[in-house]
Input
Amino acid sequence: MTDATLMDKIVAVCKRRGFIFQSSEIYGGLSGAWDYGPMGAELKRNVKAAWWQSVVHFRDDVMGLDSSILMHPTTWKASGHTDNFTDVLVDCRKCKRRFRQDHLKGKCPNCGGTEFTEPRAFNLMLKTSVGAMEDSSSVVYLRPETAQGIFVNFTNVIDATHRKLPFGIAQIGKSFRNEITPGNFTFRTREFEQMEIEYFCRPEDAATKYEEWIKARYQWYLDLGIRKENLKLRVHDKDELAHYAAGCTDVEYEFPFGLSELEGIANRGDYDLKQHAQFSGKDLMYHDPVTNEKFYPHVIEPSGGCDRGTLAFLVDAYHEEMVNDQTRVVMKFHPKLAPIKVAILPLLKKNEGIVALAKKLKSELQKDIVCVYDDSAAIGKLYRRQDEVGTVFCVTVDVQSLEDKQVTVRDRDTMKQERVSVDQLHKYLKDRL
Ligand code: GAP
Output
């Protein structure tokens, strides 16, 4: 299978099974925007929950935040986005198409033309306006990153929680960028979700914390089932770094369209807090209650894309296997990420006893296991459907179940079937999920 075919197949299964749809498809679609269907919404929620659990709940030094998308416009002056968050664009003089200059290799990829307009900087922030008047004073931006919402709340969080260094603030939220060339499915979009942490520490600890976060974030993807051969760390060269940054390392995934960034872990020095202190006139220094020192903490920033992570989990989970001369498509998600953990399938949908038992099992299991009841097709078709959405176990209720009080549990990955007593079913599933 070529890589292009593989990506086409993944896009097709995403549509067929309700993971991802094109935005506003009935109107011809909107480029750079995607909708998550019933399965995709569950999958993405699971990705975010796994991240939050790992970086907030399982640690003692990171707290959560949920800041607004619309922020005071000076935020973006201070962060540098108003002046520097740009792509350099040129237009082909022949076909009038617009391109990022750094993507061009001499000729126009559309018409082969060789003459271009002068390069112009194009700001990637999406603008809107607030209030009843539309003038320059009403302009606000849809945030291009969630990070600045954390920096501007730095002293609020300290005042409210009395935290001492080192500590981090984590948040998940939508960000927007007017990307010139959105593409590769959900990899580069104009609206996306980020999962970001700003980890504040003493300047002398920054190098160690930077290394710790690189390890922790790399390991997170492996723990959730990404195959090691598909995951790489890439250290940025000095000339790629922002002038204030001491280092940056990307976690990259081997997508069918090439090795690409999932997340960046940056050692940002004290740039951000200093900038906001200067532009706001507020004291954003850390006051050490023991030593009485006042200083700007240094910041380590692990910044990942939720949609990109979700896409990597989808790609890595996709498997095709030959079973009885037929291709079985199966999404081998880590059980923690699988949209549905258990499907309960009555073998005969007209048999009242079977249906009653199957529905009873569903209502018991659903209290703490995400499960579905499905009787809309023959069993072979139902299995195929559940395999394609990555359901970890299928539980089949048959005539025999009414007598021996046992059901058949089928494992997604091995397809092995086991009879399990109804009394033991919850424990059996819990132990394996
Ligand atoms: N605060 C730092 C920051 O925003 P970034 O490298 O620009 O850094 C962080 O973005 C992550 O956000 C990326 O690694 C990527 O996963 C995700 N991301 C950025 N732009 C994106 C886009 N246009 N579409 C989807 N995800 C995007």
Summary: The first strand starts at residue 20 and ends at 22.
